[in-house]
C-alpha cells in the first residue's frame, strides 16, 4: 500500500487550520502567535512538525540545497518524509493543527499528502500583518537571505550547526490582566541563500579556547589544540598544564562547560565533542 493511500485513523477528529502568505512575508515569524490565539498546539512549517516550541518530527526544508528541493520537502513529496510526520501524528493525536504555506493550493496539498481532513479555516498573512511589516520582512529575506524557524535556537542547533544567525525573542502584550505572548524563534541563512554558506576558521576555535584557558585559575598553559570541523559541528581536543594544588577534575570540568557555551554562542557552531587532557603539572615557586 502506498503512503498516499494511508488515512490517519483519527484524522476526522483533527481540526485543520492554514496560515497562508507569499514567501518572505513573515509567516514563520507569526506562526506561533496565530496558533496561540486559536489554542493550537501543533504546527507544520517547512517540513517540521512542531509542538509548543519543540520540534517533534521532520527535517527543515531550509536545509535543502535548492529552492525546488525546499518546496518538494515542504509538501512532503517523498514517502519517507511523509512517513515520519504521519507516525508522529499517530503518536500525539493532535486535536488541531496549523499548516503554513505560500498558497491555498500548497496547504491543501500538504493536508492531502499527510492524510489530514480538509482545511476548516484559513488565516492570511495580510490579516495579521501590516503592508509595511510584510515589505520589511520581504526586504530582509531578499537582501540578507534570512529565514525564521518558529522554534527556539536550541531545538535546531544540531541540524543547523554553522548556519544559525540569531535567536529571536518575541514579546507581545495581550492587554491589561492577560498573560503576555512570549516566544523564541531562530533566524537562519539556508544553504540555497545567494550569500552562501559560511565557515569558521580553526584558528578562531583555538583563540577562543586559549583565551578562556587564560581566565581559568587551574590551567597554567595550553600545550596543544586540535580542531576537526564536521557538517554537524566541531570536535575539539586540548592538552594543558595544570597548576599544582587545584582539583584537576573539577578545574577541567568547569573549563569545558564554559568553553562549550562560549564557542556555541560566538560561532553558532555545535560542539560535538570537547576533550581536555592534563599533560603536565606546574608547581609555582615561592612568591608566585
Helix/strand structural class: alpha/beta
Q: Any idea what the CATH architecture of the largest domain is?
A: 3-Layer(aba) Sandwich
Number of domains: 2
The quaternary structure here is: single chain
Apparent shape: elongated
Strand composition percent: 25-35%
Low-confidence region ranges: 1-5, 152-158, 160-176, 180-198
Mean pLDDT: 77
Provide the spatial order of strands within the biggest beta sheet.
Answer: 4-3-2-5-1-6
Instruction: Please give the alpha-carbon distance between the first and last residues.
Output: 77 Å
Keywords:
288 residues; alpha/beta; Rossmann fold; Alpha-Beta Plaits; six-stranded mixed beta sheet; three-stranded antiparallel beta sheet; 29% strand; elongated; disordered N terminus
Description:
The chain has 288 residues and is an alpha/beta fold. It has two domains: 3-188, Rossmann fold (3-Layer(aba) Sandwich), CATH 3.40.50; 202-282, Cation efflux protein, cytoplasmic domain (Alpha-Beta Plaits). It is 34% helix and 29% strand. It contains nine helices and twelve strands. The chain has helices at 27-37, 67-74, 79-92, 104-113, 125-128, 131-144, 153-156, 202-214, 248-267; strands at 15-20, 42-45, 48-51, 54-58, 96-101, 121-124, 147-149, 164-172, 181-188, 219-230, 233-243, 271-282. Strands 4-3-2-5-1-6 form a six-stranded mixed beta sheet, with helices on both faces. A three-stranded antiparallel beta sheet has the order 7-9-8. A hairpin with a 2-residue loop joins β3 and β4 (54-58). The longest helix is centred in the last third of the chain and has 20 residues, at 248-267. The model is unreliable at 1-5, 152-158, 160-176 and 180-198 (pLDDT under 50).
Amino acid at each position: 500500500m502506498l503512503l498516499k493511500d494511508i488515512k490517519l485513523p483519527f484524522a476526522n477528529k483533527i481540526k485543520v487550520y492554514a496560515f497562508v502568505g507569499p514567501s518572505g512575508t513573515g509567516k514563520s515569524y507569526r506562526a506561533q502567535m496565530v496558533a496561540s490565539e486559536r489554542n493550537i498546539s501543533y504546527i507544520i512549517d517547512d517540513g517540521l512538525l512542531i509542538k509548543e516550541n519543540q520540534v517533534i518530527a521532520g527535517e527543515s526544508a531550509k536545509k535543502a540545497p535548492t529552492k525546488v528541493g525546499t518546496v518538494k520537502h515542504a509538501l512532503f513529496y517523498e514517502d519517507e518524509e511523509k512517513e515520519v510526520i504521519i507516525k508522529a501524528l499517530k503518536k500525539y493525536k493532535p486535536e488541531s493543527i496549523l499548516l503554513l504555506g505560500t498558497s491555498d493550493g500548497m496547504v491543501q496539498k500538504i493536508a492531502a499528502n499527510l492524510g489530514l481532513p480538509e482545511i476548516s479555516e484559513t488565516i492570511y498573512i495580510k490579516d495579521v500583518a501590516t503592508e509595511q511589516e510584510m515589505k520589511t520582512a520581504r526586504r530582509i529575506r531578499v537582501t540578507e537571505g534570512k529565514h525564521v524557524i518558529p522554534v527556539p535556537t536550541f531545538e535546531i542547533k544540531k541540524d543547523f550547526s554553522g548556519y544559525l544567525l540569531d535567536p529571536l525573542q518575541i514579546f507581545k502584550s495581550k492587554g491589561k490582566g492577560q498573560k503576555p505572548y512570549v516566544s523564541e524563534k531562530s533566524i537562519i541563512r539556508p544553504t540555497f541563500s545567494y550569500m552562501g554558506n559560511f565557515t569558521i576558521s580553526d584558528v578562531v576555535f583555538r583563540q577562543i579556547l586559549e583565551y578562556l584557558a587564560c581566565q581559568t585559575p587551574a590551567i597554567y598553559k595550553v600545550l596543544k589544540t586540535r580542531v576537526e570541523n564536521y557538517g554537524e559541528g566541531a570536535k575539539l581536543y586540548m592538552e594543558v598544564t595544570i597548576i599544582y594544588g587545584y582539583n584537576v577534575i573539577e578545574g577541567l570540568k568547569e573549563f569545558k562547560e564554559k568553553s562549550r557555551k562560549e564557542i556555541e554562542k560566538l560561532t553558532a557552531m555545535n560542539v560535538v565533542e570537547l576533550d581536555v587532557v592534563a599533560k603536565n603539572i606546574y608547581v609555582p615557586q615561592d612568591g608566585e
